[in-house]
Amino acid sequence: MTSERKTAANRANAQRSTGPRSKDGKRRAAKNALRHGLSARHAASADPRVTELAAELGSEDPRLAGAAARRLADAMVTQATVARVTDELVTAAMAGLDPELPYEVREDLARLEVLPRLAALADYDRRAAAAIRKQLRKL
Fold it and tell me: Are 78 and 37 in contact (CB under 8 A)?
């Protein structure tokens, strides 16, 4: 069980970390999840690639009908999007580096430059992989 001292410290910290307070700050914070369109379920589900892939998956395996096919397709499209965005970030970062450097060195330097963003993308990729495993276990 948590000590009273730790509970009091947690409550004090929670009072200080309330998120943005201004209207502008709240508006900006509301768009954080939409940066790459990966965490916005309504946006991802409206993606025509999800609908097409779900229909294809459903036609190949009758056990994948309706919502199951859509969840699997959504996770697969998310993984493809993560891969595309990762490549775009690294490629853009590499463009600003000395072309005389060996390709592997430029790629490593570029990845270091965009590491925090790559870490966030890795979270989306892990969630999508878990969703895929979950749907496949249900089959």
Answer: no
The three-state (H, E, C) secondary structure of 44-98, written as one string: HHCCHHHHHHHHHHHHHCCCCCCHHHHHHHHHHHHHHHHHHHHHHHHHHHHHCCC
Q: If you count them, how many residues does the chain have?
A: 139
| Cα angle: 80, vertex 34, 41; to 5 degrees | 65
- The enclosing H or E element of 15 equals helix 4-16
- Residue 131 CA from chain centroid, whole number: 12
3-state secondary structure of 20: coil
pTM greater than the 0.90 cutoff:
no
pLDDT in tens, 87-138: 998 999 988 889 899 999 999 999 899 898 888 889 989 999 999 999 888 8
Tell me: pLDDT of 40 over 60: no
